[in-house]
Amino acid sequence: MKKITDELIMNLIPERQAESHKGNFGRVLVIAGSPMMTGACILCSRAALRSGAGLVYAMVPKEIMPQIQVAVPEVIIKNRDDTVKDYSYYDAIVMGPGLTTDDAAAQLVDDVLERAECPLVLDADALNIVALKGWQDRVKDRCLRGLATVITPHMGEAERLLKDDKDFDFRGAEREEVLNELYDLIGATVVLKGNRTLVRPMFGGSLDPVYVNTTGNPGMATAGSGDVLSGMMGGLLGQNIKNAAMASVFLHGLAGDIASETKGQYGLIAGDIVENIPEAIMNILEEKNGLQDL
Questions:
Q1: Alpha-carbon dihedral of residues 94, 100, 102, 107, nearest 10 degrees?
Q2: Which pTM value belongs to this model?
Q3: Which residue, 18, 129, 283, 285, has fewest beta-carbon neighbours within 10 Å?
Q4: Is 270 left (phi over 0), alpha (psi -120 to 50) or beta?
């Protein structure tokens, strides 16, 4: 396995040009949240913004639109119940945090898989719906069409996605074996979350295609941490940053490490990770500039 290090990531994060506007930094659609899980959408949307996305849209049920707008005033709210959805407007879509797995949510996942052609992050309940409906081949078909797709399972979600793979013994498998089996099954960039998160890029083409993250700490094992990660991926994908999955995994862990310096590992919460994304990115850019000055 290769390591995801600061030397690798600093080459992925560009400096911003003076002549820029919000349209230069991507339109990201977050399809997330439900009446009992508004926080997932809030964390995901904030993370996309803190990662540099120029415009973030949150598509949520009508009844929680006011809560999302108050919590994240920078986000543009879209009514999930609208019958006409134009995915062509967006540069990236994040789908799944707090979505639930009811019929309405499944119809949304079905619609996005069918019609969306921008980069797509499938997380949390979107992955659970894929597993429940047996839509792994539909995700793979999208990948075979060359459409950038990222799946972000933890081990429990990975097991559900692989439940019908009779030739694979999940219980006896190492994490790297699970990662590779998911990649073979679905073909997307696979981010297998956990201690030292593993990444296998969709367009890797390497003899050693598996990468292991080198940032993060046990304090990040907290509710909402994964929602933050998926939002960061959407934010970086929307900016057309190469290897956005690896960059977001590293920066997510680094933001958690920075947060733990003041909050400690016991008191760290997902919101602390969000608030330290800017410092994580600044640290990488400062290190990059320091090397260029040598």
A1: 0
A2: 0.96
A3: 18
A4: alpha
